[in-house]
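Quick log. Single chain, no ligands specified.
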Amino acid sequence: MTANLLPCHIHHNGSIDPVSAYWKPTDSTDNSKEAYFRGRKLKGKPLPLPQGYRGLIVERNPDKLKKETLLSSDDQDTNDDEVVPMETVGTMRVTGEFDEMVIWSHESMAAAAADPYVRSVEEWLKVSDKIHGFEDETNDKTK
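-> predicted structure:
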């Protein structure tokens, strides 16, 4: 599956069928993708995820209120100092996975130096490698 990052905001969060009526990207000769969305030409830069990584599409579940009370040692009535205020607890649920992203731009392909999304994906992959990688005695980098 491929995730598409479009240079627009769509005010709809449900499903639409059939998607093929609105979205028909094609491959170009310069290792990019091309599509038209609502009459505007878009060029896309494919960014495959490195081996060992997977992309997740998550959706936020509705917040729930959580209330905790501290128990006193002699089980007396609790006073206001022992009640922790209610806080919202949100969770995320996985709704899909992808192994490639396409970063779309108007008229021209997104460049790593200029596009904040391309740059941030590449930077986060480097940070992840540093966090999850280690060097063994032979100075070979291993995950």
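The radius of gyration is 23 Å.
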